[in-house]
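Thread: Newbie trying to understand structure tokens

Hi all, I'm a second-year student working on a class project, and my supervisor (Dr. K.) asked me to get a predicted structure for one chain before our next meeting. I've only ever worked with sequences, so writing a 3D structure as a token string is new to me. If someone could post the tokens and maybe explain what I'm looking at, I'd be very grateful. Here's the chain:
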Amino acid sequence: MVQDESCILADALAQIRANCSGATPALGSFAVLDGIWDGQALQHAEVELERAAPPPSGDGDFARLSLAGVGHNLAARARALSALRAYFAEQDFLEIDAPFIVQAPGLDAYVEAVKADGGYCSTSPEFQLKRLLAAGLPRPYCLGHVARAEEDGPWHEREFCMLEWYRALPARRKCNATPKSCCGGWRERLATVRTWTFQTGAEWISNRPSSE
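---
Reply by user tm_fold:
Sure, no problem. This is what the structure looks like when written as tokens:
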């Protein structure tokens, strides 16, 4: 769908800019364009098909994904996860897939686990990562879902996505600098994500403007 006069095409997941060599599709129309994609915009675009369309409306999942911006948020989340994995791959870390249902919950006594049939939902991949670290895997990390009872709040729900990593035998100064250096490495990759916030221990690191 043509979203504004500069010919920004939009669907539930993305927006792209089209630089038309001829007539520009009408605002709000459904259009099929043919052009050359240069990685940032559709260049020398020509209108192959155009149909008038009523103002978009709907309810349920369509309204959430296409009208309320949830689709764009999902696409931004996917780019963020891809950026995190690319960074750790460059630093020679190995991603592991820790189990979600475990026989014993996390190692922290103050963390309340969620019971599951025959065990518990994992509160953290710490145990699995440390087993691999002790067995000789020098740089394991895990990016996946965990669950903690009684932790609903402004930053996450009872089930949420956690990133945890370990590095064998680092210098103390390098170990202390790891969270900030990691976030620094992510910032360029996350430039297309409007806002993001990470918690590193007791400190929050964010690209949100200081006024927010």
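A couple of things are worth pointing out once you decode it. The longest strand covers residues 41-51. The two ends are 32 Å apart (CA to CA). Feel free to ask follow-ups in this thread.
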